[in-house]
Structure formats: structure tokens, C-alpha cells
Amino acid sequence: MFADWLTTLSFVFGGCCSNAITLEQLTSQLPRAGSLITFCQFLIISIQGLRRHVIWTTYGPRFKPRRIPLTPYLIQVVLFYFVSLLNNAAFAYRIPMAVHIIFRSGGLVIGMILGWIFARQTYTTAQVASVSIVTAGVILTTFSASVSSTNSLSDHESTLRIYLTGIGILTLALVLSGFLGLVQDYTYSTYGRPKTNQKSSVQDAPPATWQESMFYLHFLSLPMFVTVRKDLISQFQALGNGPVASYTVPVPPSISATIGPSLAIPPPSAVPLYPKSSSFLSFTNIATSSTSTFIDSERLFLRLQLPAAIFPILLNTITQLLCAAGVHRLTTQVSSLTVTLILVVRKAVSLILSVVFGWGRKGTQSPESVDVAMMWTGAALVMIGTVGYSLSTNTKNNARKQKAE
């Protein structure tokens, strides 16, 4: 049990916080790469899930039986696709990471409004008061970055217009996320809540509901990226035309011994000059080559020249996978109240790492232009309101159970 909890919390805090850091670094380098980042995240989660949801038969690969029919997933897929795309696209409109983290916590407000309108849900006074506190916190956080220091009124108006456009995009994502929550609640109430994956000796036994949902929401969304194919192409081109980073990879000794003697060593006049402190000798001129080979004594090295943003994108997609798995695992181990409280703490940690330590920024990059006092006040209100809403909801559910008994 301890090992299982340690794994889950490592995925939630390590995966989600690392994902926020790499996302901030990526969007600072490529602010308009939201579609590319979203596509890479969806792709790696889909590839990772294939091994659990596909089996090989005599007639080729086929999907395992599902716990939930395919039709209920279709609406979820469309909503989930646009929510993910909009959240990452908002960074192109100068939305600081701190505002991004806190603003997305406003989904509690949207969820209550939609639940009251469409699901005919009723709420206690404590729940309404808590949501009001969250709303005030989100508004304060939004205003904390809405005013920037510019030299002219026209520049200020242009910057404010861009910022408000980003806030509008995040607001639309929150509304769609609220509808997604309603659809998922209906689906899970009909076909069963996510449960832990029980081991089975049957090869084609379906995975746990949460694993199935995570896989199909990402996998079925991949064809929809055709709608942003032009953006993806331009972002791939911008990635290739950006700064280049070099990575030196040692070649295993067994491979070095095999291909080493076959390398043709050029004459001294053809060898590029390197500092005397360097222990590597180039066999090729790498000015126009993406890879080159080096030799040091009898060991062989490979130098790769790749776009500098490739490594952050790879880290972001891997941490996104760990974060999604951790949150879904958490929902199977504890109550929804505990899940909410743990995620509030996780967001607070991400906020501290971003604003206080600046882990998502480069060393030469200036801190985010936000009113720190206003931002932290808004963050505190959002967290207090979220905790208050969770506690009041838990009290309401317990009273309902006692009355039913």
C-alpha cells in the first residue's frame, strides 16, 4: 500500500509540477506552439495506451472489449480536444503561467452554474459562499497581470487587448470543461465509476475504466488535429528554424569495436580545429550536418545537433503522461474530497516553483509582469474557496446518506 501511494503521489506532484515547468519553458520559447504541444501530448499518451487496449489475433490487431460503449465517448472526445487545445493556445496571448494555473481553478464556478441549469442540482449556502470566494480570487488573479508597463497609450491598449483575448480563450475552455464534466458524470453514473485495475488472467480482459477513458479520449482525438494541420506545419517549421542544441552520446563499446576500424580517418588538413582542452576529434565537418562522429582513444561518440526545443517537448509529453496517470490513479484510491485537496496543494506547489523560484524560466528571462501581492491574494482566495466547497460538499453528502438510512 505504501509503495502504491508513493507511486501515485510521485506521479501527481513530480509529473504535474514538472509538466508545468516544462510547459512554461516551452511557451516562453515558442508561445504559438500550443497545437504542437497538445498534439505531442495526445500522441504519446495514445501510444502508451495501445499496449493495454490492443491485442494480436490470428487476423491481426484488434481492440479489447470496452467497459463503456464507443458512442458516449464521441461527445467527450470533441469537448476534451477543444479544451486541451484552447488551454495551450492561450499562452500565445501573453498569459503568465501563474494566471494560467489559478484561472483554470475557476472551473468550480462554471461547474456549479452548469449543474444548476442543466442537471437541476441544488447547493447549500456554504457551497455558494465558497464558490463566490473562488470567483473573487480568479478575478483578482486576472487583474494582477492585466496592466503592463508600456511607453504609450496605444501600446498599452494593444497589450491589454491581446491579454483579454487570452482570458477569453481560457474562459471558453472553462465552459467547455464544465460541459465535459457533466457528460462524464452521466457516463460514469450509467456505466460505472472508474475503478482500480484488477489483475486478470484473461488476455482480452478490459483495462480499468479510468485507463480506458484516458486512452480513448486521447486516441480518438488524434484525427481531429487535421483541423489545425496548417498550424502544426508552421509550428514544426518554426521548431526546425529555431536555436540548435548539441548532444554528445557515447556509442557502446561493442558497436565501437565493430564500426571503428571501418571509419576512414581524414588527413590532418581536413580535420577541423578544436581547442586543445577538447578530447574529441571530429571525423566530419558538421557545419551542414545534423550528426557527426567523434573518437577519443578507442571509444566512439556521436554528436547530435537538434532543435533546442526538442528536449523540453519530450520532457513535457512524458510528464503529461505521468501527471494524467497519477491523477486518474488518485481517483481510484481516495474520495473526491481528498482528490480535490491534494490537487489544490499540487497547484500551490506549481505556483511557488513558477513565481518564487522561476524554474520554468530561463536564467536570462525576466520574471512575469504581475502584481505579486494581488496574484498571491487571488491564489489564496481560490484555494480557500476550493477547500471550503469540498468540505461543504462532503458534509452535504454525509447528511444525505444519514437521512437515507
From TrEMBL:
It holds the Pfam family UAA. GO terms for cellular component: endoplasmic reticulum membrane; Golgi membrane. The keyword Membrane applies. It is found in: Endomembrane system. It comes from Collybiopsis confluens. It is a multi-pass membrane protein. This is UAA transporter. GO terms for molecular function: UDP-N-acetylglucosamine transmembrane transporter activity; UDP-xylose transmembrane transporter activity. InterPro entries: EmrE-like, SCL35B1-4/HUT1. Keywords: Membrane, Sugar transport, Transmembrane, Transmembrane helix, Transport. SUPFAM superfamilies: Multidrug resistance efflux transporter EmrE. The chain crosses the membrane at residues 30-50, 70-91, 97-119, 131-150, 162-183, 339-360, 372-391.
